[in-house]
């Protein structure tokens, strides 16, 4: 709720009527960390002196606009009478000593609101007067508390009930060097053989929920650029286990469970793919939410006046538009997601070589089933809308999501996937080969990689081809005769051109040799729709596309497949080198570095604000929380090492492929966690010794400080 800084002074005064009374001065200095309500905080405070038989009028500070750390510095005075030397003509009520001791000063914080429902309550503080001595001053910080509503006259069930699950996490993060041993152990997880013996995989084994482990692991690996090798390693291990366990079953079941692999990929897509969803789905989702076209196709649920055929047409148009925007968005897919999909495709293809479709379903099960379909179904959870849609819009999005999910699944009997007959009827609109081809082309693009893998069994994936005009490379004579029409072909391995489709390539440029792809200014050759493919040693291929749309498509897709090349340029020449100089900057040397920054290309790599030390601290906290399971896993390693028979039931929940390696890693984890635990204990001792209870660092109400004091008292008593 935030905290408040108060100064209280109780003074004895003699009034003009001769009454001896006590005056309480309450100074509201400042607040920190007040809650923000609906994106704003315009706070003010009210101060009240209350007792069993009296309550003064609430006194109010000025409103401080647009801050949740307001400085008030306002003083309010209250008179408290004592039963000594008083005048009965005084207009103040007379309380005996017991009642005065029951009085309290109450400070309430409010957010000034223009809403008709009134101002919003932020937090309160109640302080009994009995702790203040005569003529004493007391200054301290206090945590604000939730509202104390007193005894309710309503029965508990009068207003219904609400069940909440609230989790509060507090991280005390040290400087980076404290975490080096544990962090290094985690980051080398992808290189451990088998990966089940790695620290990251062990965390997934001991956590109650895989999601619990996946969140900090993904953030840590993303921060240090190790997410792709780690997910590749655990995905390969999962595919191997699937092959052993389900050798006679459908291989399309891989990655469908809630394994560490699937949870890590889900979390990576949610982090790295949020911008991708914004540029892909948000415009259409916004339109659906605003226009409210009727799209109900269940005859039973039709409203009066609605036409079933019109509704089907409305829904078909929405599905068509969303399907098109998804399948055309491959060039915008974040690089890290593409690299992961490439790894999944390779792993599935190697293990299930007899099934040609598994290389597609391994990817579609994530990008459609766990990314696009959920984002359409619940756009508020993916930051596409601020609130949950209304019932009619929610129903429309549900129908769209079901159809998109089925279109992306590439299963052979799609109509049978629907339990509802009206959905099977509606799906007949999309039962055409062009939809399956579009999905496959999209999956080919997002699961291709410019990185050559010599162990790959996959054939090069064709990404785009077509006729364009190119200028001869490396010649000294210029003119139209040096421009020739050629058939261009782009795969995830190379960019080639030949005289006609099917001919032997006249030129082949490996993807790793594409250092930049940029537009070429029209003045260079007096030709429109030109772009340049820049290669090592300043070798440049100038190409003219058929139109501006084709030029953009080629630039986007070439940039996409080459954007991870280590030697990509940061600057380029927007014009050609002609007649002994660059037309753009007039430099005469043909090897002069570029004069213009390369364009940002595609928003494929979004910079994430991740604190690697904080994520390591969270992983330490999880290991510490599940220490009993780590110790039991150690026992399981010992049991498997000396006993080769059937696995004991209490150890069967752990995946242990190599007991010796797993035991070594567990020992290092427990040592690292123990060291950090000691550092935390020392930190708390030092911190609480140096600070005073009631200070800004430890406001009154700080339970961690109270716990520490209690523990120290118990230790002292035990020592005595």
From TrEMBL:
<keyword id="KW-0677">Repeat</keyword>
<protein>
    <submittedName>
        <fullName>Ras GTPase-activating protein 3</fullName>
    </submittedName>
</protein>
<dbReference type="InterPro" id="IPR000008">
    <property type="entry name" value="C2_dom"/>
</dbReference>
<dbReference type="GO" id="GO:0008270">
    <property type="term" value="F:zinc ion binding"/>
</dbReference>
<keyword id="KW-0007">Acetylation</keyword>
<dbReference type="InterPro" id="IPR023152">
    <property type="entry name" value="RasGAP_CS"/>
</dbReference>
<dbReference type="InterPro" id="IPR001936">
    <property type="entry name" value="RasGAP_dom"/>
</dbReference>
<dbReference type="Pfam" id="PF00616">
    <property type="entry name" value="RasGAP"/>
</dbReference>
<dbReference type="InterPro" id="IPR039360">
    <property type="entry name" value="Ras_GTPase"/>
</dbReference>
<dbReference type="InterPro" id="IPR001562">
    <property type="entry name" value="Znf_Btk_motif"/>
</dbReference>
<dbReference type="InterPro" id="IPR035892">
    <property type="entry name" value="C2_domain_sf"/>
</dbReference>
<feature type="domain" description="PH">
    <location>
        <begin position="461"/>
        <end position="563"/>
    </location>
</feature>
<dbReference type="InterPro" id="IPR011993">
    <property type="entry name" value="PH-like_dom_sf"/>
</dbReference>
<feature type="domain" description="C2">
    <location>
        <begin position="1"/>
        <end position="142"/>
    </location>
</feature>
<keyword id="KW-0343">GTPase activation</keyword>
<keyword id="KW-0597">Phosphoprotein</keyword>
<dbReference type="GO" id="GO:0005096">
    <property type="term" value="F:GTPase activator activity"/>
</dbReference>
<keyword id="KW-0479">Metal-binding</keyword>
<keyword id="KW-0862">Zinc</keyword>
<dbReference type="Pfam" id="PF00169">
    <property type="entry name" value="PH"/>
</dbReference>
<dbReference type="GO" id="GO:0035556">
    <property type="term" value="P:intracellular signal transduction"/>
</dbReference>
<dbReference type="InterPro" id="IPR037774">
    <property type="entry name" value="RASA3_PH"/>
</dbReference>
<keyword id="KW-0863">Zinc-finger</keyword>
<dbReference type="InterPro" id="IPR008936">
    <property type="entry name" value="Rho_GTPase_activation_prot"/>
</dbReference>
<dbReference type="Pfam" id="PF00168">
    <property type="entry name" value="C2"/>
</dbReference>
<feature type="domain" description="Ras-GAP">
    <location>
        <begin position="209"/>
        <end position="409"/>
    </location>
</feature>
<dbReference type="GO" id="GO:0046580">
    <property type="term" value="P:negative regulation of Ras protein signal transduction"/>
</dbReference>
<dbReference type="InterPro" id="IPR001849">
    <property type="entry name" value="PH_domain"/>
</dbReference>
<dbReference type="Pfam" id="PF00779">
    <property type="entry name" value="BTK"/>
</dbReference>
């Amino acid at each position: 709720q935030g905290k408040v800084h108060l100064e209280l002074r109780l003074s004895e005064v003699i009034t003009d009527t001769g009454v001896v009374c006590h005056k309480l001065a309450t100074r509201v200095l400042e607040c920190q960390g007040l809650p923000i309500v609906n994106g704003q905080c315009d706070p003010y405070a009210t101060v009240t002196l209350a007792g069993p038989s009296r309550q003064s009028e609430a006194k109010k500070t000025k409103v401080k606009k647009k801050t949740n750390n307001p400085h008030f510095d306002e003083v309010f005075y209250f008179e408290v009478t004592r039963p000594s030397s008083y005048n009965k003509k005084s207009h103040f009520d007379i309380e005996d000593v017991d009642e005065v001791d029951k009085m309290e000063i109450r400070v309430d914080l409010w957010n000034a609101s223009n809403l008709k429902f009134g101002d919003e309550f932020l937090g309160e503080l109640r302080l009994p007067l009995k702790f203040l001595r005569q003529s004493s001053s007391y200054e301290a910080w206090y945590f604000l508390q939730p509202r104390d509503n007193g005894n309710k006259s309503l029965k508990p069930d009068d207003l219904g009930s609400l069940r909440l699950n609230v989790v509060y996490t507090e991280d005390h993060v040290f400087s980076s060097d404290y975490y080096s041993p544990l962090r290094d152990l985690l980051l080398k997880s992808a290189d451990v053989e088998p990966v089940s013996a790695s620290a990251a995989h062990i965390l997934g084994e001991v956590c109650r929920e895989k999601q619990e482990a996946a969140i900090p692991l993904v953030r840590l690996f993303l921060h240090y650029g190790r997410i792709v090798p780690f997910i590749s390693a655990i995905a390969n291990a999962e595919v191997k286990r699937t092959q052993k366990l389900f050798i006679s079953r459908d291989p399309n079941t891989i990655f469908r469970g809630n394994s560490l692999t699937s949870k890590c990929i889900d979390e990576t897509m949610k982090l790295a793919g949020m911008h991708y969803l914004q540029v892909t789905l948000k415009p259409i989702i916004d339109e659906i939410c605003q226009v409210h076209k009727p799209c109900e196709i269940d005859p039973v649920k039709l409203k009066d006046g609605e036409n079933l055929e019109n509704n089907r047409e409305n829904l078909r148009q929405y599905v068509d538009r969303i399907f098109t925007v998804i399948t055309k968005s491959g060039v915008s897919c974040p690089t890290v997601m593409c690299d992961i999909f490439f790894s999944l495709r390779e792993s599935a293809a190697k293990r299930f070589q007899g099934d040609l479709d598994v290389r597609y379903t391994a990817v579609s099960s994530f990008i459609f089933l766990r990314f696009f379909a959920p984002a359409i179904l619940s756009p508020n959870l993916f930051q596409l809308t601020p609130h949950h849609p209304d019932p009619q819009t929610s129903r429309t999005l549900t129908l769209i999501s079901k159809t998109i999910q089925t279109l992306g699944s590439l299963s052979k009997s799609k109509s049978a996937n629907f339990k509802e007959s009206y959905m099977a009827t509606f799906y007949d609109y999309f039962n055409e080969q062009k939809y399956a081809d579009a999905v496959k082309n999209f999956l080919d693009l997002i699961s291709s990689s410019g990185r050559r893998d010599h162990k790959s069994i996959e054939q090069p994936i064709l990404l785009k081809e077509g006729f364009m005009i190119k200028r001869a490379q490396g010649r000294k004579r210029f003119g139209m005769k040096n421009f020739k029409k050629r058939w261009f072909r782009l795969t995830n391995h190379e960019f080639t051109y030949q005289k006609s489709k099917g001919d032997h390539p006249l030129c082949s440029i490996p993807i790793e040799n594409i250092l930049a792809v940029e537009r070429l200014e029209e003045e260079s050759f007096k030709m429109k729709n030109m772009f340049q493919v820049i290669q090592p040693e300043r070798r440049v291929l100038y190409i003219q596309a058929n139109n501006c749309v084709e030029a953009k498509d080629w630039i986007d897709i070439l940039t996409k497949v080459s954007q991870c090349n280590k030697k990509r340029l940061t600057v380029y020449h927007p014009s050609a080198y002609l007649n002994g100089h660059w037309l753009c900057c007039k430099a005469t040397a043909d090897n002069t570095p570029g004069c213009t920054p390369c364009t940002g290309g595609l928003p494929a790599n979004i910079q994430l604000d991740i604190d690697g030390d904080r994520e390591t601290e969270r992983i330490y906290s999880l290991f510490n929380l599940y220490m009993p399971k780590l110790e039991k896993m150690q026992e399981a390693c010992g049991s498997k090492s000396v006993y080769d028979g059937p696995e004991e039931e209490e150890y069967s929940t752990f995946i242990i492929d190599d007991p010796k390696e797993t035991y070594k890693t567990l020992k290092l984890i427990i040592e690292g966690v123990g060291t950090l635990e000691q550092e935390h204990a020392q930190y708390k001792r030092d911190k609480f010794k140096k600070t005073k209870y009631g200070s800004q660092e430890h406001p009154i109400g700080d339970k961690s400080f109270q716990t520490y004091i209690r523990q120290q008292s118990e230790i002292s008593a035990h020592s005595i």
